[in-house]
Specification:
Blueprint (H helix, E strand, L loop, with lengths): L15 H4 L28 H23 L6 E3 L3 H9 L3 E3 L1 H6 L5 H5 L10 H9 L9 H10 L3 E7 L6 E6 L7 E5 L1 H4 L7 E6 L19 H8 L15 E9 L5 E6 L8 E6 L7 E4 L3 H4 L2 E9 L8 E10 L3 H11 L9 H4 L11 H5 L2 E2 L18 E7 L5 E8 L10 H9 L3 E2 L4 E2 L4 H7 L7 E10 L7 E6 L4
Parallel strand pairs: 1-2, 5-7, 13-19
Antiparallel strand pairs: 3-4, 3-6, 4-5, 6-7, 8-9, 8-11, 9-10, 11-12, 14-15, 15-18, 16-17, 18-19
Length: 487
């Protein structure tokens, strides 16, 4: 789209993508930086974020004028959670709301409200006063200060691993140069709002405060008052120093490793409350505060929750519900939990991947056969159990004329069908392997390859990498054409 930089008409023109629009569930896309009526030049001293906000406001004004000119029954709304941007948009005459204000105005869809982040939710006066008087954790150092101290060696950087048996304990696997490989962290204030696998900055405590890992199994209690009593209880001094580990406290978070978590909702004891606790399936993840108006419907459901924030005034992080998976103990639901918790890709193969597959019927071309060693005359068998469809390896053994035995191993030649750098290669790299559940298989490659063309099936011609060995010498691997037989 060409841009008019000067001398434009008095009213906004209609770009081709908009003027021809029927406005029936279509979305016009205009490059605002290429169109004179929405183009915004960054001002001296103006931040990139402020310039972008100003460009969005100008685009909103343009669309308002355009829709008004066409007399369409449509309103232009600007959604922003930036308080300054909201005030400027309102002063410019733009109909503007925060995301929370807009979603809360939608009637009949309580599940949408559950997806709102709790991070920006306004608190009641009682809650605000409560938070001011209650500080559970020390403040994190600014990232710039953390980086400076890590560089000087005053702090160590590493990945935090929560103990499976004691949620109040874990170790930081040190990544920066240090004489310590790992540092023990014990106690909720020393943990300081860390979540399993976060990258953190840690300060090593004096040797007099070093300790050894606890051999107790400690789980979270339901009431915060009880929890505080447990975690504030002083520990007995250690007499044997041979097992002491360097011990430290977390002073900053360098990178959060938050993901979607599966679990169940622990309903509030107050019947009218919308505030509840989410209990993750992974015991190394802390409980999460959530809000929902669907507590009754979600009581016996597996749900997925995302963490939004962890303020200093709360023993638990805050989060929101992403979606419900299904009933607890349902086989399909529990399978989905296993796949999500272990971050196993199990979506359907994209069309780009399917386009990489060979066309059927597939046959071996004379050119391909000429550059391979033909082993179809050799009796080759698989050791996979009956009914197996992805047979990727096979064996053979035969007596040679001199009385020695030759043994061979044959691996399906997947590289013939998966070309480097293409969509199928990238998808296989992301999946890494085929995953087997009790009643389901998550293929690394589409079924045409995994269960057919790259499976060394009985009495069918297939490509393989083969290596054979006699009792005297070993032959180097080579590309072959093979055919398995039944015994």
């Amino acid at each position: 789209m060409s841009a008019r930089l000067a001398g434009g008409p008095s009213k906004p023109p209609f770009p081709p993508s908009v003027s021809s629009l029927s406005f029936s569930r279509q979305t016009p896309l205009i490059k605002s930086y290429c169109f004179s009526f929405t183009y915004v030049e960054r001002l001296p001293g103006e931040s990139i974020n402020d310039r972008n906000d100003r460009a969005i406001r100008k685009a909103a004004i343009y669309y308002h004028q355009l829709i008004k000119e066409k007399r369409l029954p449509v309103h232009v709304l600007l959604l922003t959670d930036d308080r300054k941007n909201l005030e400027l948009a309102t002063s410019d005459g733009i109909l503007a709301f925060t995301t929370r204000e807009y979603v809360n105005s939608i009637e009949g869809c309580p599940e949408i409200k559950d997806k709102l982040s709790l991070h920006d939710q306004p608190s009641s006066l009682d809650e605000i006063l409560n938070e001011k008087n209650r500080v559970c954790f020390p403040e994190h150092l600014p990232l710039s200060e953390v980086q400076r101290r890590v560089k000087t060696g005053a702090l160590l950087q590493g990945k935090f691993q929560t103990s499976r048996d004691n949620y109040l304990e874990g170790v930081v696997m040190v990544q920066s140069e240090s004489k310590y490989d790992q540092v023990l962290v014990h106690g909720y204030r020393n943990l300081n709002r860390v979540v399993h696998e976060d990258i953190v900055a840690i300060e090593v405590l004096p040797k007099s405060q070093w300790r050894k890992p606890s051999n107790m199994i400690v789980t979270e209690t339901e009431e915060e008052d009880e929890l505080t009593e447990v975690i504030d209880e002083p520990t007995a001094p250690l007499m044997d120093e041979s097992d002491l580990l360097p011990t430290g406290r977390i002073v900053g978070i360098i990178k959060r490793s938050w993901r979607m978590y599966c679990g169940v909702m622990q309903k509030s004891s107050l019947s009218e409350s919308v505030k509840h606790i989410f209990v993750p399936s992974e015991r190394r993840i802390p409980k999460i505060r959530i809000e929902t108006r669907q507590a009754a419907a979600l009581a016996n459901q597996r749900i997925v929750v995302a963490i939004d924030a962890w303020p200093r005034s709360s023993l638990y992080p805050q989060g929101h519900i992403v979606r419900a998976l299904g009933d607890v103990a349902d086989k399909a639901t529990e399978n989905e939990v296993i796949l999500l918790e272990h971050e196993i890709p199990h979506h359907e193969f994209s069309q780009a991947v399917l386009d990489c597959l060979p066309k059927l019927p597939w046959t071996i071309s004379p050119e391909e056969l000429a550059r391979r060693e033909d082993l179809r005359h050799v009796d080759i068998c698989s050791v996979d159990p009956p009914g197996c469809t992805d047979i990727d390896d096979a064996l053979h053994c035969k007596r040679l004329p001199n009385g020695n035995f030759e043994s061979g191993v044959h691996i399906a030649d997947v590289t013939h069908f998966v070309q480097p750098g293409l969509a199928m290669d990238k998808e296989a790299s992301e999946r890494g392997t085929t995953v087997y559940l009790v009643d389901r298989r998550i293929d690394m490659l589409p079924e045409l390859l995994s269960s057919n063309l790259c499976s060394l099936r009985e009495n069918e011609d297939r490509f393989a990498f083969s290596r054979s060995r006699s009792t005297l010498r070993t032959r180097r691997p080579c590309r072959t054409s093979t055919r398995c037989c039944a015994f």
